[in-house]
Amino acid sequence: MRQFDCISIEYFKKEELLLWKIKDTGMPNFCLKGLQEFKEFCIWVQEYFSHPDRPLKFIVSGSEHHDVYNMGGDLSYFLDSIKTENISKLRTYAHLCIDAIYNMYTSFGLPVITIALVEGNAYGGGFECALAHDFIVAEEGVKFCLPENKFNLFPGMGAHSLLTRRVSKVHADILIRSGDTYKAKYLQTLGLVENIAQKDGAILELYRFTKMIKERFNFEYHHIQCKKMINPLSKEELLKITDLWVQACIKVNTFDLRKMEILVNAQFRKVKMTN
């Protein structure tokens, strides 16, 4: 089993399940190094599990960070790139995000079901990452948020495309425009979260859920594929939107950047307190 710097891997052959988690190595967000490595991880997953002796039905994502699934984009990276007007850096980062999102959405090119195991808060790109999975299993009390409009930007790594294919246009608009935090229980009423686990009981709920799905896997897998065929999502659509996000980044003003800096500092304080 290959080792990665930013990702931990566990393969449960009997359950036909691969669990990958973002390692607790610093800020729980999508850093450039992590995104570059994730591209290698996606290639490895497809190659490794194409072997008939390695059965796989489920790919599950999670996080080793305490109380955080993912905080989303690397705001420090954004700030530096915007201040120096380095469009190339922003576009490189954005396209790597789309590579990651689309690989998750297309199940890494394998006949498997993907599940986001959300044991902590998912903000911005972290929420988009969870939405790219076929199912979300979340702990009770976990919060989700798309905060980008707080600093005059929009979520550019899949939120519009993924939400409008999962909920009504009205609900998608509210989730994107409000900037509010929403608990897993509320998102379950919208059909975005499949199952709610008790506090510290997410792994047990995951195994219960996958055992149930496994019994009717042929139906569930093909049902999901039918839904994706009826309302297809192309990588081209995601790239066009993220290129628009890059353009929007360059247009934010000094006041917007200051609000972004405040959020960056708040994130660093929170990570320091939990470590």
Description of the structure:
- This protein is of the alpha/beta class and 275 residues long.
- It has one domain (7-274): 2-enoyl-CoA Hydratase, Chain A, domain 1 (Alpha-Beta Complex).
- The protein contains eleven helices and ten strands.
- The strands form two sheets. It has a six-stranded mixed sheet with strand order 1-2-3-5-7-10, sandwiched between helices.
- Helix 1 (32-48) runs parallel beside helix 3 and helix 3 packs antiparallel against helix 10 (235-251).
- It is globular.
- The two termini are 29 Å apart.
Quick overview of this protein structure:
This protein has 275 residues and is α/β, with parallel strands linked by helices.
Task: Spell out the blueprint of helices and strands.
Elements: E1 7-12, E2 17-22, H1 32-48, E3 58-63, E4 68-70, H2 75-83, H3 87-105, E5 113-118, E6 121-123, H4 125-131, E7 135-139, E8 143-145, H5 159-163, H6 169-178, E9 181-183, H7 184-190, E10 195-197, H8 202-215, H9 217-230, H10 235-251, H11 254-274
Parallel strand pairs: 2-3, 3-5, 4-6, 5-7, 6-8, 7-10
Antiparallel strand pairs: 1-2, 8-9
Helix pairs in contact: 1-3, 3-10
